[in-house]
Amino acid sequence: MKxxxxxxxxxxxxxxxxxxxxxxxxRDLPWxxxxxxxxxxxxxxxxxxxxxxxxxxxxxxxxFIKKWPTLDDFFNAxxxxxxKLWEGLGYYKRAQNLFRAKELLRKKKINISSHSLKxxxxxxxxxxxxxxxxxxDEACAVIDGNIRRILSRVFDLxxxxxxxxxxIKEIATQLTPKNNNGTYCQSxxxxxxxxxxPKNPKCIICPISFLCKSNGKEIKKxxxxxxxxxLTVAFVVRFENYFLIEKTKxxxxxxxxxxxxxEFRKVEEKDSKDFLIKSVSSWMNKYDIKTTYAYVxxxxxxxxxxxxxxxxxxxxxxxxxxxxxxxxxxLKKLNQKPVSSMMMKIKNKVx
DNA sequence: AAGTCGGGGTG
DNA sequence: CACCCAGACTT
Length: 351
What we know:
Elements: H1 8-25, H2 39-49, H3 54-67, H4 71-74, H5 79-86, H6 93-107, H7 114-117, H8 125-136, H9 145-154, H10 164-175, H11 181-194, E1 229-239, E2 242-247, E3 257-258, E4 265-266, H12 272-286, E5 294-302, E6 307-316, E7 326-330, H13 331-336, H14 341-350
Parallel strand pairs: 1-6
Antiparallel strand pairs: 1-2, 1-4, 2-3, 2-7, 5-6
The structure holds a DNA duplex.
């Protein structure tokens, strides 16, 4: 049972206006060079662009393509090299999924279709359709945050409605053109970025404003939940020129290198000093460290679902104790390892 | 359906 | 400060 039926007149007007707008206003992006637009480059760009702004991605994309110009080159990449290039970009699972996916592709080629691509790790509903549309003009409904925003404005949809996702899917499917879907979906991306922006949309110069039900009206958002603030202690343990470093095993920042951290915990502001003292003494007891420590300062870091306040403690050891699961690295060696932005902040604070 | 995964730019 | 970004994956 269709809730929406979009007539042919709307469809043809919609497509015509959007494509002609794109012809004039399209952005010049590094992964859009027609002459070398291929699966590999589109794939890397789409993965990098996940939850990440175009302006952030561009330098990372260029660096990536310079290091591994083709898929064949990328086949030789090590996970740690990919993570090193990825450092600072965030959502590091993406780098690991790229690694897993290219290992699969190295063994077995797959054809480019939304159905096949979805089997690769890190490629889901959106990216599989996007790649297949751009490279093969497959007429699949490409739906991302941009397109979702445009359609919810044009059809005045309520994001809090339980049926929101199915409504979007239905509308997007009907609007997907049989031909030129690749150009069409990229047009929508640019329109969303340049005109139909999240805040202050430029409805005055929008080519499809005459088709839009909610001219510039604010989109109703789900009510935000409080983001918790957690506390941890970072242990900068030094012996001569060596620092005690571990490789993260948690899901968060997995496989990146870090100073040892205490458990993350929600702590009232007034209890933070208490938390520091207890965490430090318990950690030093665990590893049987008898020396004194110095409080260096703190850095704060934002993750998507909580904020972290890192209390930094410096410990200088008179001899190289053995620690399970840790390794001793000079600063020079450490700089060659992949680390998170949080780790960079801590490093800079210690210097 | 909700939670987990980064981090920086913007209003 | 809050909000957002070319989402995927797990539970």
